[in-house]
Amino acid sequence: DSGVTQTPKHLITATGQRVTLRCSPRSGDLSVYWYQQSLDQGLQFLIQYYNGEERAKGNILERFSAQQFPDLHSELNLSSLELGDSALYFCASSAWDTTYEQYFGPGTRLTVT
Amino acid sequence: GIQVEQSPPDLILQEGANSTLRCNFSDSVNNLQWFHQNPWGQLINLFYIPSGTKQNGRLSATTVATERYSLLYISSSQTTDSGVYFCAVERPTSGSRLTFGEGTQLTVNP
């Protein structure tokens, strides 16, 4: 158990819908990262928050947004869902901003039908 | 961006065999991690090893940063070692994002 929690574990929804994925980092960690794992793109970095502020952005679609709250938990919002958004979404956390080991949560498996 | 290449892409072993997985990267890095993704999809941290050698039970890893590669050794493999092994790196100039290789799919047969 990495200490990073994610909910829900599974999510099935229809095209055009909006969903919210939630992540709680390990106790004491200030950075939260979101990654997407799909069959065709592999594991890709989406976005990082550090102590409530956006720190780095990767290949995140404009339909996706995220935030980190004062209690350091984070949410990833996915809207206008398409079939291609079906993937495993991971949250990771690390102690500080950079060069620290990242620990991954169990992931949320999103299926868009 | 940085390129991360893992080899071999697939590996099939008999229980008890040893193996070496390789990760080559195209630029200098300040973080390198090895992960095991089990059949349930969970990513398990194996090593945080931007340089040097570490050992943890039957697993060990070596990173030679100056030559831009890392090796993961699995000895006396067990069926529970099956899954995908990923190498992921972080560049000094790219913030904290990890760039993952495509992984090595390991199958250990009884």
**Mean pLDDT score of chain A:** 95
> Which pair of protein chains has the largest interface, and what are the residue counts?
A-B, 28 and 23 residues
Largest sheet of chain B: 6 strands, mixed
Helix/strand structural class of chain B: mainly beta
By secondary-structure content and strand pairing, the structural class of chain A works out as mainly beta
The radius of gyration computed from the alpha-carbon positions of chain A, rounded to a whole number of angstroms, is 13 Å
Tell me about the largest β-sheet of chain A.
7 strands, mixed
Helix content of chain A: under 10%
Query: Quick one: how many beta strands of chain B?
Result: 11
Tell me the total number of β-strands of chain A.
11
Keywords:
heterodimer, A: 113 residues, mainly beta, B: mainly beta, 5-stranded antiparallel sheet, 11 strands, 0% helix, globular
Summarize the structure.
The complex is a heterodimer of chains A (113) and B (110). Chain A is mainly beta.
Note down, in words, how this protein is organized.
The complex is a heterodimer of chains A (113) and B (110). Chain A has 113 residues and is an all-beta fold. Chain A has no helices and eleven strands. Chain A is globular, with a radius of gyration of 13 Å. The mean pLDDT of chain A is 95. Chain B is mostly beta strands. Helix content of chain B is 0%, strand content 56%. Chain B has strands at 4-7, 10-14, 19-25, 31-37, 43-48, 52-56, 59-64, 69-74, 83-90, 99-100, 104-109. Chain B is globular and about 45 Å long. The termini of chain B are far apart. The chains are: A mainly beta (113), B mainly beta (110). Chain A binds chain B through residues 2, 31, 33, 35, 42-45, 48, 50, 55-56, 58, 88, 90, 92, 94, 97-104, 106-107, 109, and chain B through 30-31, 33, 35, 41-45, 48, 50, 86, 88, 90, 94-100, 102-103.
